[in-house]
Predict the 3D structure of the following.
Amino acid sequence: MHPKLTDDQPIYRQLRDRIVALILDNALGEGEAIPSARTVAAEYRINPLTVLKAYQELAEEGLVENRRGIGLFVNPGARERLLKDERRRFLQEEWPRIRARIHRMGLGAADLFPAAPPRTARTKARTR
């Protein structure tokens, strides 16, 4: 995890979001252990109870499970459920604002997705 925290939201929420990002990025796969609360608390120099609050949220969401005496592990299907939620949130909350801004600026598909330069024999050989 990245050791820089911000003041824009509670620390426990930032930690929760970082674990979610690790799951979405496949840095933490199904069945893998998440870092211990003590390790994270030491890394960020914060109270272990703050980390436990973040981990409690993840457990309540069904993303991780506590294996008594062993640690917290990513649940099967956690990534797919997160992707579904993230896609829904993007399409309902973020995309309408982005689309409106694109429209206000007069951008079209050609501006947003410029044609890729033609591939030469040299670039074809490098990509193989």
Remarks:
- The beta strands are 64-67, 71-74.
- Residues 1-114 form a domain with the Arc Repressor Mutant, subunit A fold (CATH 1.10.10.10).
- The chain is about 55% helix and 5% strand.
